[in-house]
Amino acid sequence: MKRANVLTASDLPEALSAHPTAVDGVVLGRLVDIGPDGTPSVDFPGNPTGGPVRAAATRNYHRLDVGRDVALMFLDGRADRPLLLGLIVAAAAGAMAGAPTGAAAEAGVAAAVTVDGDRTIITAARQIVLRCGAASITLTRAGKVLIRGTYLLSRSSGVNRIKGGSIQLN
Question: Is the N or C terminus of the chain more exposed, i.e. has fewer CB atoms within 10 Å?
Fold first, then answer.
């Protein structure tokens, strides 16, 4: 974001006292980073520091949120005390922020998955792969389910059935 006068973080207290600028209302900014302690850093128009400012937040944010537009307010109207209210859902053009574009949008593929604890449906046009280290589960459009790993365990408190046109062991 463009600034006419760029100040360093060490200049901020002097700059704010020399030129008191109260920031009123909601300001649109950008989530720039998430610190190791989970604290978000934001940038916004009129930012007197010239770089990201650590912000208080109303909820936890994740690395996937970095780069998204955010709504900010400022504690006591001070530009050095942003409060991150939330992510902006709709971009200025009316498209959903973070929504898939191009071929992914045409195929109906979701760019991100949000788990609500009740039921989650993940859909892909050709293939879904869940991978962790040497283990993977692959689902294909043809109906194949491929489970790979160095150790596979199947447990059941009831009947453990294997059904198929034919079954091959080893």
Answer: C
Reduced to 3 states, what is the DSSP secondary structure of residue 136?
A: strand
CA 79/CA 16 separation, integer angstroms: 8
What SS3 state is found at 8? coil
Ordered by where they begin, the domains of the chain are 9-87 (2.40.50.140)
Angle (nearest 5°) at CA 18 between 15 and 23 = 65
Query: What's the burial of 84, exposed, middle or buried (CB within 10 Å: 0-12/13-18/19+)?
Result: buried
**pLDDT score recorded for residue 116:** 62
Secondary structure (DSSP) of 21-63? ----S-EEEEEEEE-TTS-EEEE-TT-TTSS-EE-EESS---G
Across the strands, what pairs with 27? 72
Give 149-166 pLDDT, tens digit per residue: 999 888 889 988 888 888
Query: Would strands 27-34 and 69-74 be described as parallel, antiparallel, or unpaired?
Result: antiparallel
Distance from C-alpha of 18 to C-alpha of 5, rounded to nearest angstrom: 14
pTM: 0.45
